[in-house]
Write a structure and sequence with these properties.
globular; 35% helix; four-stranded antiparallel β-sheet; alpha+beta; 412 residues; 14 helices
């Protein structure tokens, strides 16, 4: 969006972005409105899609979308499968597959661009899970190989002038397994050697898959040298604490939880969120009641943090760790997880967030027409990326953005 989070203030998936999109629209919206052929694949907060999403070369909303809507329409078969896999593997990766959604994807595989080699890798993965059950965590990464197949097919079919592809598979692995790969980064290390030996190669595995994506993209732009590649991580990660985790609290039965808050099913809409967060949109006439009720819940010895934003959106930060039998207090009275529709989920891989985001990320630009030009720049503000992209297409940079030229990216 070309502005820092202090300006756009987006915090949670599926909060109402109507006002934000008006004040600080995303780069793909600005480009599309200026006649630049644009494609979007999985970028965060691309859901719900804009009203004119069918005017895009392709539009595949993020994995927290509230519906399978995508463009072209046949991609909805993949998006339906994609969303279900994301929901079912939010913390512990599910070993099951939705047969109906999976069958629909198989039937449309050639049209979607899903390749035989990808299916062979998926089959190998499923077979290996029988002897090594712990590697089912890699399904998150293989989910992205399917998405990348779909993305590259659309790139070759539609040849947009600008396109995005988003993947979280590396970041997800870093959060969980940094302590296994880089145990030397911690002063205090309270993790068993067996866990380290099991998961020490997971970050390398996800990076290898990213390298394959990158190589294929390089091959594509070498054949179509009017393109450039921008790899932008926006932020990086670093070690936090090396602790194993046994369980986390989450909302298992939303209807029960919301009923305890004094609302029935017609008073709210549950919206997808990243585990263990729980997000809902409350009807206007119930907002005041819910605002008062939501601040009364204590899990363990800490109040559950709740954020409210535009038009009745509320985000609950569950995920309290190692609560054992559990202790809940609501409005000063002790109660149980079961009575409130909560559950203390056993974490199969015992992985806590052993690494988390830091401001310093990575920006890499590859231009097939200038392969000899190499330049290392120590620091570039992440907010400079969008203005440079706009300049590249001779699109006016809005006054609220600050333009700082990035060599090799903007042609103007």
């Amino acid at each position: 969006r070309g502005v820092p989070n202090t300006m756009h203030q987006i915090k949670d998936f599926n909060e109402d972005l109507t006002l934000v999109n008006t004040k600080y629209p995303s780069v793909w919206e600005i480009l599309q409105q200026n006649g630049i052929k644009t494609g979007v694949c999985g970028s965060m907060h691309s859901s719900p899609p804009p009203e004119n999403y069918r005017d895009y070369s392709f539009f595949i909303p993020d994995p927290f979308a509230t519906s399978k809507v995508a463009h072209p329409e046949y991609i909805e078969a993949f998006q339906d499968f994609n969303l279900q896999m994301s929901r079912e593997s939010s913390r512990n990766v599910s070993s099951s597959l939705n047969l109906k959604a999976g069958t629909n994807v198989l039937l449309k595989a050639p049209q979607l661009g899903l390749r035989l080699g990808t299916f062979m890798e998926l089959g190998k993965q499923v077979l290996q899970e029988r002897s090594k059950p712990w590697i089912k965590t890699r399904r998150r990464t293989y989910q992205m190989t399917l998405a990348f197949d779909v993305f590259m097919k659309q790139m070759k079919n539609t040849k947009p002038q600008f396109a995005t592809f988003f993947t979280n598979h590396v970041a997800s692995s870093m959060h969980r397994y940094w302590a296994a790969t880089y145990p030397q980064d911690y002063k205090t290390f309270n993790i068993e050697k067996e866990w380290v030996d099991t998961y020490k190669n997971e970050i390398y595995f996800t990076m290898e898959m990213f390298s394959r994506f990158f190589k294929e993209t390089v091959d594509f732009v070498n054949k179509n040298p009017e393109y450039k590649i921008i790899v932008a991580s926006s932020m990086g990660q670093a070690s936090t604490t090396a602790e194993q985790i046994d369980s986390q609290v989450y909302v298992e039965f939303p209807k029960v939880f919301m009923n305890k808050m004094g609302l029935n099913e017609t008073d709210y809409t549950e919206v997808p969120s990243m585990f263990p967060q729980f997000n809902v949109r409350i009807n206007p006439e119930k907002i005041e009641h819910f605002r008062n009720a939501s601040g009364k819940l204590i899990v363990g010895n800490e109040a559950v943090e709740v954020r409210e934003s535009e038009n009745g959106f509320f985000a609950f930060d569950f995920g309290q760790k190692n609560q054992g039998a559990g202790k809940i207090t609501y409005d000063g009275k002790e109660t149980t997880f079961k009575e409130f529709g909560l559950y203390n989920l056993i974490i199969e891989d015992k992985a806590d967030s052993t690494a988390y985001h830091i401001p310093e990320g990575t920006l890499l630009v590859y231009d097939p027409q200038h392969t000899s030009a190499k330049q290392d720049v120590e620091k570039i503000p992440s907010t400079a990326l969008v203005p440079n992209i706009l300049k590249n297409f001779n699109v006016s940079v809005p006054a609220y953005m600050k333009f700082e030229k990035i060599e090799g990216l903007s042609v103007n």
